[in-house]
Amino acid sequence: MNIYENVDLSLISNWKVGGKAKYLIDIENIEDYSKSLSFIKEKNIKALVIGKTSNLLFDSVDLNIALLRLGQSFFSIKKQDSNLIVGASTPCYSLARKAQQLGLSGLEHIVGIPATIGGLIYMNGGSKRKTISENIVSVTSIDNDGNIIERNREQCEFSYRKSIFQKIPDELILSVELKLSLDDSKKIRKENLQILRDRRKKFPRKQPSCGSVFISNPVNYKTVGPPGKIIEDLGLKGLKKNKAQISDIHANFIVNIGGANSNDILFLVKEINDKARLISGIELESEGLFVNKNGYLTPLHLVNIDE
């Protein structure tokens, strides 16, 4: 277990935004996790598990929290018939490519997602109108008392961009079993490459962001379209607040154009929803979560920036 103090979050977060976290703890095994909980209790501060931080906006002030990050020992992929047992810190792109090499189909949609599989399970993320829960057999986690818990897919209470793990943040996801289908490796590779090409064309990949800011609500999608189209139709594409910008490439991305802070980004999220309510009568729900100075999580669209 390695403990780092006063870690500059703007250097490790996907958005390149954030103050300094009191502690960052790298965990390599379950024993490390138990030790980290004792350390956190001793320091009397809140803990937050992070992966690639792709859905997190950290407050730009200093944060009195301990961030827990799973190390390389949780990066694992094991084949069991046509299923895969995957460690929680495994990056999505590594998993998708390994599945392709093994001739296992079903994970092509995650090949370009900049997240770990643990984070993807937490958010029930995915792309191409798919979610990771479609392939989940079971998820294994550990609670603060050291109890190992295995839940099947139904017990994980998955819905669109939701899971039971958002209700029980004190549990740490350890691994997942995924059910896939046998297919031709070359065919899977071709689809992976096409998805990556499409993402390069559509998304502002060279600028720091959290990926899609707002959830593509199925009801809104049918009536007024996906969030990017809604925001563009509102005339907000390209809008700036200091060094944050609603991307002029894809309007469902808010990018850091160099030195943005958390309030700049939250201002743009609020501006989008204020105008969406006024003109279209809808509210866009965010995928991204705001981490305040005490480590509490709030969906971006619900944050009061006057606090």
UniProtKB/TrEMBL annotation:
Gene3D superfamilies for the chain = 3.30.465.10, UDP-N-acetylenolpyruvoylglucosamine reductase, C-terminal domain, Uridine Diphospho-n-acetylenolpyruvylglucosamine Reductase, domain 2
Q: What pathway or pathways are given for this protein in its record?
A: Cell wall biogenesis; peptidoglycan biosynthesis
Principal place of residence: cytoplasm
List the InterPro entries hit by this protein, alphabetically: FAD-bd_PCMH (IPR016166), FAD-bd_PCMH-like_sf (IPR036318), FAD-bd_PCMH_sub1 (IPR016167), FAD-bd_PCMH_sub2 (IPR016169), MurB (IPR003170), MurB_C (IPR011601), MurB_C_sf (IPR036635), Oxid_FAD_bind_N (IPR006094)
- Which keywords appear in this protein's UniProt record, sorted alphabetically? Cell cycle, Cell division, Cell shape, Cell wall biogenesis/degradation, Cytoplasm, FAD, Flavoprotein, NADP, Oxidoreductase, Peptidoglycan synthesis
What GO terms in the biological process aspect are recorded for it? cell division; cell wall organization; peptidoglycan biosynthetic process; regulation of cell shape
Q: Which residues form a coiled coil?
A: none
Enumerate the catalysed reactions. UDP-N-acetyl-alpha-D-muramate + NADP(+) = UDP-N-acetyl-3-O-(1-carboxyvinyl)-alpha-D-glucosamine + NADPH + H(+)
Biological role stated in the UniProt entry: Cell wall formation.
Its name, as the record gives it, is UDP-N-acetylenolpyruvoylglucosamine reductase
Write the lineage as a comma-separated list. Bacteria, Pseudomonadati, Pseudomonadota, Gammaproteobacteria, Vibrionales
* Species this chain originates from: Vibrio palustris
Q: Which cofactor does it need?
A: FAD
Active site residues according to the UniProt entry? 161, 212, 287
Q: Where can this protein be found?
A: Cytoplasm
Q: Which family does it belong to?
A: Belongs to the MurB family.
